[in-house]
Specification:
single chain, 9 helices, 8 strands, elongated
Length: 255
């Protein structure tokens, strides 16, 4: 019973914190504790504690006059959303050309924790069913995932390398071998995954950069291993790299 009450209290606190954040707008950019408690029907002490927590997390900031406004953390979040929207919009023509030229389903994906999330997809006559838009696959055993991960900071790579799990028959589970594998991907500029996520499924991915030069996404093709193995891998990689550079240029990267 105590555990349930604690869970209910936590859930209510989260809901009220979200309600506080939704009060801010262009017409109402700053609010005081008294205003928020009145608008939401909250006890003033409860409102104050929630706002103190949100301020500590960077979601709110306090002015010298003890009024609150949205914190700078939202600039980072808005930047992430804007970049994802740009990637989704700008990648479509390139994915369409990839699917037509290479005859395999084409994808654009981004890193989300230990997974790669797919923002856009173009299918062919024989589509790859495992990665619909919005789906997430392990970053450690997908062409797009490894093409992004290979260019991330060491602490991100190490964190994932220490939690590797077996998926397909060729998935790498040894941390040191995995790190060496990512170094090779970084050097060659593409990732080839044969039967790593599922037996009979393979993919090739290359990095996509934004205007800062950071790798923020990957463009890839995926399909049955038999078809991927029988295609001209060198041609597929070259075509994917051209698409990756094209999308990167649309995001402001000129390297």
């Amino acid at each position: 019973m105590k555990a349930l009450k604690k869970k209910d209290y936590t859930l209510n606190s989260v809901k009220n914190a979200a309600r506080i954040l939704r009060l801010f707008s262009l017409e109402r950019p700053e609010l005081g504790v008294t205003e928020i408690s009145r608008l939401l029907g909250l006890n003033k002490s409860t409102a104050y504690h929630l706002m103190t927590f949100l301020t500590a997390e960077g979601l709110l900031e306090k002015s010298p006059k003890s009024r609150y406004r949205l914190g700078l953390a939202f600039l980072r979040y808005s930047g992430i959303i804007t970049t994802q929207m740009e990637i989704h919009r700008e990648s479509l023509p390139f994915l369409e050309r990839l699917a037509e030229e290479l005859g395999e389903s084409a994808f654009i994906g981004i890193l989300e924790g230990t997974n790669v999330a797919y923002l856009q997809k173009v299918d062919v006559k024989h589509p790859h069913p495992l990665s619909p838009i919005g789906n997430r696959n392990p970053v450690s055993c997908t062409g797009s995932g490894k093409a992004i991960l290979a260019f991330q900071k060491e602490e991100i790579i190490s964190g994932i390398a220490e939690r590797l799990q077996p998926y397909g028959p060729n998935s790498i589970t040894d941390p040191e071998r995995f790190k060496k594998h990512l170094m090779d991907i970084r050097s060659q500029g593409y990732a080839l995954c044969i039967d790593e996520i599922y037996e009979g499924v393979s993919s090739i991915g290359v990095p996509v950069r934004d205007y800062t030069g950071e790798v923020v996404a990957a463009v890839s093709i995926a399909g049955p291993t038999e078809r991927i193995r029988s295609c001209n891998i060198e041609h597929a990689v070259t075509t994917l790299k051209q698409a990756g550079l094209g999308i990167s240029a649309k995001l402001g990267y000129y390297g």
